[in-house]
Amino acid sequence: MLRFVFRRVLNQWPLITFSLASLLVIAFLEFSIPQITQRIIDDIIPSKSVPQLVATILTLLGFALALSLFSYVSTYVMSRISQTAIVDLREELYRHVLKQDFNFFETQKTGDLMTRFSGDIKAIQDLISPNTLRLFSNVLTFVFVLAFMLKTDWRLTLLITLTFPFLYLLNFYFSRHIKTAFRQVRQSTAKINNQLQTSLTSVLLIKNFATEDFETERFGAVNQENKEHYLTAMRYQSLFSPSIDFINYVGMAIVLGYGTLQVFRGELTVGNIVAYLAYLKLLQNPVRSFTQMVSRFQQSLVSYERIMDLYQVEPNIVDVANPLELTGLKKAIQFNHVDFSYEMGQPILQDVSFVMPRGQVTALVGSSGSGKTTTTRLLTRLYDPVAGEVLIDGCDIRQYSMSSLRHHVGIVSQDVELIDGTIRENIMYGTPSATDEELLIAVGAAKLADFVEGLPKGLETQVGERGIKLSGGQKQRIAIARVFLKNAPILILDEATASLDNESERHIQASLDNLLEQKTSLVIAHRLSTVLNADMILVMDKGRIVEQGTHESLLAHNGRYQELYQAQFK
Ligand SMILES: Nc1ncnc2c1ncn2[C@@H]1O[C@H](COP(=O)(O)OP(=O)(O)OP(=O)(O)O)[C@@H](O)[C@H]1O
Q1: Which of 341, 342, 539 best tests ligand 1's pocket when mutated (most atoms within 8 Å of CB)?
Q2: Closest ligand 1 atom number to CA of residue 526
Q3: Mean per-residue pLDDT, 428-448
Q4: DSSP letters spanning 497-524
Q5: Is 369 in the pocket of ligand 1 (CB under 6 A)?
């Protein structure tokens, strides 16, 4: 973990060098101040020299001022180093997560991912904090002080160091337990986040089924679990500091007891004892901050492991080395003996083969769960086939760069996804360079113009939380306008007109027909009326294409299409 953190701050070496230099100065000043006390007690008090006293006090104040100044500067600089490193880390992790396969997001819990971005990154941030820096300066002071004490009275110093093994053992014992306990705290916090995330995004479900009490009870259970783990962690942590304090008092007793005996024998001065007591504190400081660091370190370690887990996930669907750039569709898209399964041993698509010639509309029909959406997902490489291939102009789509492939496909799907922003931002999402003229054409084509003109802020109206609520049909039309604007040569319409009333559907259908005319499209529709005019209809059943042809030829055939048609219209 330290190596990981170190690599992340290494590029800020000038600031780090400056911080380390300040640490040296701080350690020197902290070591010197008790020397001044000793000098006053042992030399100046007996000499009764006022000028010497004034000079020494001024030196003391000067040292104290310098100490404050260096502490301030080094703390601020360290915060800067830490913030810069954390911003980089968060961004890198974000990019890494977005790069993952679609499948990753389907299996990963959102709340858990959010915890990694918030809590876990914060724990790493704590590690690169001014407190950690303090620990380093304390360690330096520790070395200075120990060297001096050994020189002054090695026996007394050795007696004090007898307490160190106990400190070490206590650290060892507590840190192990604290680490385990904090891992459980984090896991249960992620559970709380998951529960919150799922219930807050399904409020309608909860209201409709009046399951508030049930949900609250479930939430209570995970909340309680979190409390138990936290209390376990706290039990260890609260016992940790007092145990260390006790050992420290033993050290103080040794200095006072043995030191006073030495004074009796004339081997140490009173000033020596006072300085020793101050130094004892300086020896204890590192131990103190070390104890705090242990728990922070444990938390960071748990978080580090969770972040590393995330880093270690690599996407399976990636560009080949030196991918081709797709520059347009010239002849056809072809599915060639494609097999696919989401989970091993459970085939979803089997031996799917068909051709979509350029400029034609291919429709996919079939009962629910027959594999229509899955087929469209293979075309944009949300998933790759298990066997067989998908070709564009005779070339396997895996040879093209994913971004060029996806730039060539426009999708309107069942679930419209809107971003938090204005209607304009939503329509221009993915096409930020579109001109106002192009935007207005898209708005008109998607039959949104009347609706937008009726809004006081027009295209600048916020959608979602801080703006207007949109109906299902309006959302869908925004999604259609977005695809109009993208103007990709290949179109996928997955139940694109699903949430429109009959009248809007007619409007949209007309403009979609315009759009489809110049495109190569794959249209999924449960309502057969929307696919009557398709150039080719593929009938899917249990992951296979069981029939294909035009509406008339399929009806005449008296097969699965006939059944579907009968079920809908008779
Ligand atoms: N992410 C997934 N993981 C595992 N199985 C899945 C996943 N998505 C879909 N399936 C399964 O794959 C099969 C085909 O689903 P698909 O969504 O392609 O069907 P569909 O024909 O589009 O259905 P509908 O018309 O209801 O949208 C279904 O049995 C479904 O349960």
Answers
A1: 342
A2: 25
A3: 90
A4: TTT--HHHHHHHHHHHHHHHHTSEEEEE
A5: yes
Report which ligand 1 atom has the smallest distance to the Cα of 371: 18
- Gap between the Cα atoms of 335 and 313, Å rounded: 30
Q: Whose CA is nearest to atom 4 of ligand 1?
A: 342
Q: Give the SS3 label for residue 209.
A: coil
Span 230-247, pLDDT tens digits: 999 999 989 988 888 888
Same topology between domain 2-312 and domain 332-569:
no
Pair type for strands 409-412 and 490-494: parallel
pLDDT tens-place string over residues 16-63:
899 888 888 988 898 899 889 889 999 999 999 999 999 999 999 999
Mutational test site, ligand 1, from 335, 373, 542, 546, max ligand atoms within 8 Å of CB: 373
CA–CA distance, 373 with 348 (Å, rounded to integer): 11
342 lines ligand 1 (CB under 6 A): yes
Write down the domain spans for the chain.
2-312, 332-569
Express the helix, strand and coil content of the chain in percent, nearest 5 each. 65, 10, 20
The structural architecture, per CATH, of the domain 332-569 is 3-Layer(aba) Sandwich (3.40)
How many CA atoms does the CB half-sphere of 254 hold within 13 Å? 18
**Ligand 1 in contact with 328 (CB < 6 A)?**
no
Residue 341 Cβ < 6 Å to ligand 1: no
Q: Tell how strand 361-366 and strand 520-524 pair up.
A: parallel
The position carrying tokens 């249990």 is 542
Which residue type, as a one-letter code, is found at position 196? L
Q: pTM value?
A: 0.75
**C-beta neighbour count of 540 within 10 angstroms:** 24
Cα atoms found within 13 Å of the Cα of residue 46, Cβ hemisphere only:
8
Highest mean pLDDT among 278-287, 523-532, 547-556: 547-556
Task: Tell which atom from ligand 1 comes closest to the C-alpha of 543.
Answer: 14
* Ligand 1 pocket mutation, candidates 370, 377, 494, 545, criterion most atoms within 8 A of CB: 370
Q: Across residues 214-238, what is the average pLDDT? A: 92
Ligand 1 pocket, residue 350 CB under 6 Å: no
Architecture field, domain 2-312: Up-down Bundle (1.20)
Whether the pLDDT of residue 295 is over 70: the answer is no
